Amino acid sequence: MKIGAPKEILPGEARVAMTPASAGMLQKLGYQCVIEAGAGLASGFTDAAYAEAGVEVVADAEALWAAAEIVAKVRPPTEEEAARLREGQLLISFFYPASNEALMETARAQGASVIAMDMVPRISRAQKMDALSSMANIAGYRAVIEAGNEFGRFFTGQVTAAGKVPPAKVLVVGAGVAGLAAIGTSTSLGAITYAFDVRPEVAEQIESMGAEFVFLEFEESELPDGSATGGYAPPSSPEFQAKQLEKFREIAPDMDIVITTALIPNRPAPVLWTKDMVEAMKPGSVIVDLAAERGGNCELTVKDEKVVTDNGVTILGYTDLNSRMATQSSTLYATNIRHMMTDLTPEKDGTVVHNMEDDVIRGATIVHAGEITYPPPPPKVA
Ligand code: NAD
C-alpha cells in the first residue's frame, strides 16, 4: 500500500507528517511512500532528500490524495481535503473530533476511516504514539525560549566585573507535559523557578526538576480529585480558585516571567492571571500563554499576538510554537505516526490491519468502515 503526506495548507503551519527518516522506517514496514512536492520545505526537508530516501514526489495535492491509500497529516483536514477522501482510504491526523463533527460526517459519508492522533489513549503502551505529549514538550521548551527573547536580562544570576546580575524568577502555571518541559528549560537556564498545579501529586516531579512548588494552604480533602478524570485536572471549586488567585496576586510583583499552560479537558482555559496581576508586574516582565488557543489563562492574552501593556509587560499568545521549531516537531510527529503504522501493520507486509480489538487503535479511531466510532469506550488497560 502507499502512504503519503500532503503539504499542510493552514497558513503558518510549517510541520509535515512524514520526514525522509520516517519514510525509511515506513518502507521497512512494506509501504511505498509518496509526498507532495514542497511539503517538507518549511521543516527543512527538501524534495531531493525525500527522493533520496526512496519517496515518490508528486506535483500537487490532487496527485497525492489520488496516489495514497493512507494519508498522514498534521492539522485536521479542511472541508476541501475531507471531500477528497474516498472509500477504503485511511486518514491519520490530529482531528479534535469533539469540535469537528461535520468533518467526521464528511469522512464517514466518503467511506473512509480516520485515526485521530489527539485521541491516542494516554496509557504507557501508547506513549510512542502520543503526539499530544511530543508536541506539548516542544511547546513548553519553546515558550521559555520565546520569553528569553523578549526578556532584557539573563536567566541565571551572575557576578561580573561590570556588576552583579540577579537571577530571573520564573513561574510556570500548570505542570502537565508542556509545563514540565518549561520548568526543565527554565531551571537549566539558571532561573529561580516556581510552579503551580491543581494536582498536588506533581509537586514531587516539580521539585525533582529543581523548581519550587507553590503550595496553597488547603486541607487534603478540599483538593480537586483527578482520579475520576484519568489524571487530568477537574474544574476547581470556587474556594480553591479564590485561594489560587490570592496566592498569584501576592507573588505577581516578584515574577519576571510567567508561563501559563493550564487546561481542563473540553472546557475553555481557566483565567488564572488577571488584569490586576499583570498591572502589578514589573516593566520588562514577560507572560507566555500556552493556553491562548483555548481562550488563554491570562485575561489580557490576544491569540497569536504579542501585546505590550502600558506598564511594559509583554504578553505572548502565540499558538504556532511547534511550527517555530518545525524540524524538531515534524521529526517527533512523523515518528509518532510511524509507530502508529507499526501497530497497524503486524505482518510488516505493507498492509493495514485495522484491529478494532486493540485498545490503542480502537481508542484513536473516530471513523471506521462507514461508521462514526467516536467517542470510544474507556480503555481496558492503564
Ligand atoms: P493538559 O494540557 O490537559 O493540562 C495542563 C496542566 O494544567 C495539567 O497538569 C493540569 O493539572 C493543569 N491545570 C488545570 N487547571 C489548572 C489550574 N486552575 N491551575 C493550575 N494548573 C491547572 O495536561 P497534559 O499535559 O496533556 O497532561 C495531563 C495528564 O495526562 C497528567 O496526569 C499526565 O500525567 C497525563 N499524561 C499521561 C501520559 C501517559 O501515560 N502516556 C502521557 C501524557 C500525559
UniProtKB/TrEMBL annotation:
The keyword Transcription does not apply. It comes from the Bacteria. It is a multi-pass membrane protein. The keyword NAD applies. Its main location: membrane. Its EC number is 7.1.1.1. Signal peptide: none annotated. It is found in: Cell inner membrane. One of its GO terms (molecular function) is oxidoreductase activity. Residues 4-139 form the Alanine dehydrogenase/pyridine nucleotide transhydrogenase N-terminal domain. Keywords: Cell inner membrane, Cell membrane, Membrane, NAD, NADP, Nucleotide-binding, Oxidoreductase, Translocase, Transmembrane, Transmembrane helix. This is NAD(P) transhydrogenase subunit alpha. The lineage of its organism: Bacteria, Pseudomonadati, Pseudomonadota, Alphaproteobacteria, Rhodobacterales. The chain holds residues 1 to 382 of 525 of the full protein.
